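Working notes for the structural subgroup meeting. M.R. asked for a predicted model of this chain before we commit to crystallization trials. I am recording the input and output together here so anyone reviewing the notebook later can reproduce the run.

Input as submitted:
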Amino acid sequence: MAKIKLGKTKDSRTRRKPKTEDAEIKLLQKTLNEKEQPSFKKYLLQKGYSLQTIKSFERVVTKYLKWLNKENVSELSASYNDLVHYIQSLRNTVKQRTIQSETNAIKHYYNYLKDLDLVAENPTVNIAVKGVKRKILYNILNKQELEKLYNDFRQLEPSPFGGNAQRAKGALAKKRNEIIVSLLVYQGLNSTELGRLTTQDLKLREGKIFINGTRRSNERTLKLESHQILDFMEYQLKTRADILTETGKQTDLLFTSFGRSTKFNNIIGKLLPQLKKLNKKLESVNQIRTSVIVHWLKMYNLREVQYMAGHRYVSSTEAYLINDLEDLQDEIEKYHPIG
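Returned structure, recorded in token form:
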């Protein structure tokens, strides 16, 4: 009987991934520390891009520079019209998505030249390639709007309706939900992660919280804001204990509802409408997470944000860069007619 050769399963790849990523990070750091390093490559390394992505960017830029030389155009004087002309030269040889990828690589190159003060403007800024589905994430809430959402929710009064027992439950639910909203706004957790948190995940002495990994995300440990630590202590020692006494439940989950079910979606289902009343722009819990990640990208490099967000792949983090623009809506409305 012929031998059956077992292929690699998704789980086996997942199990080996952390080791591979550690090795890649060490290689990236070694490469970054090399003295004889081309400046553009070093620029991309500092931005947190992988070596594979950097090689792709360099290949595209080399191709673009050869085209400019053929057209007798200097890279430092290339204009928006030159870029449009270059893109049009690609249309019969590559797919629209490839054109989009190449335009993105050239955009990074001009951002690099701009950082060196070699060019005043990036000629790719207003170029968007028509015919490629863009992953528009959400209408982003800025840092001020996120913090206002949290503070406004804290100031809400529990419902005054019902008997004493009902009002007491409402007050406990309100304190529990304040903790949940703080984790949404400051740590960017999603519903699944919030629902899986246990009391053991809180590291209050260290001022941190541990988030377990899943098949789609990596584990990580995130810092808590100073004001969160005191709130968490009160919640863990008193509020949560009162909720368990009230419901008769025995669980190590950090958050539980007042109903029979332990599903976290029941909590979010009641919480989200309250948050929507406080901010009319709010659509979903994922919108808050997206806004937090976009804000992080303005403060940290890609690799740092990848870790904080729990993304398995840096490409997942890169997807949020399309929202890291003050004028995203303008870009959508001024979709460039290159087809």
